[in-house]
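User: Teach me something about this protein's shape.
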Amino acid sequence: MKKENLDLILKRGVASLINEESLSQKLSSGKQLRIKYGIDPTTKDLHLGYWVILRKLRKMQDLGHKVVLLIGGFTARFGDPTDKIKARTLRDKNEVSDAAKNYLEQVKGILDFDENKLEIRDNSEWYDKMSAEELLKLLSNFSHSQLIERDMFQERLKNKQEIRAHELAYPILQGYDSVEIHSDIAFGGMDQTFNELAGRSLQIKFKQAPQDLVFLKMIPGIDGTNLMSQSADNIVKLKSDSREQFAKIMSIPDSIMPVYFESLTDIAEDEYETKIKSDPRGAKIILAQSIVEEIWGEEKAAEAKIYFESVFSKRELNEAEIAEVEIKTGEYTLKDLLVELKLASSKS
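Assistant: First, the predicted structure itself:
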């Protein structure tokens, strides 16, 4: 593999690697590698935070490797406790299945669905069949002290908040996924470090070569403060309209442009840093156009740029695009009017 391709994968937008020497050897071997990415279908919409990883996976596919997209059809029923200050609500099997189908629809066009480059698995394949005895044997590979050392569990203990038994089991189950699919390399956000290290440990115990790990930087949401997440209401949806994507990216604070350029584009660092310093607004337009173009194509990106500039910069409105509503005659408070026009969901 050319050094520039290796650097693009192992350095650009990467927070940490385990084990860098082994990773380089694997990626230079010429062998098709099995690249694990696990995702629990727990929300309605994928967003640019997921795309950080998905676009990296596509690069691995383009280099000839096979991505194993692991859907957490079992683990999503109770959810990853990572960064959660209290236990998550248990989900119904059918609800998780519907969400999984929605996720797969959203990644079409981003990942290559050729069967030689993509394998879709669901961990309910093995966990729904696992006996209680097999599960207990699996759990016995870890001690309570190993599992409880996680930062968020220590925080809960400090605040006298409960930790449920199933939450302690989560990293073991996610780790065992790597054994089942024979993962060579796993990609994930920095928040998945503990879980994927459990996978390395279990692979060794099951006489497999341990997966190497690529942890990517997690991007802030459009508020510039919190990590991008649906719960923080600061996301850019992966499959939202190209105009909406463009406008939302243009709304981000200037301070987070460097991490967006690094994680969401392939534009050279010296190029975007110079542009940000000399022309922040122009840099943001380049950023928005680059992201929208990669997701929706050149034509949609160009149209979104023109629309943004006409509506938000020149304050031009196309009357054909402005909705009309009839309201009853009479007096309205502002609250009443907003609810009537469906611009607010309730008077509260």
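Now, about its shape. The mean pLDDT is 90. The radius of gyration is 23 Å. If you'd like, I can walk through any region in more detail.
User: That's plenty for now, thanks!
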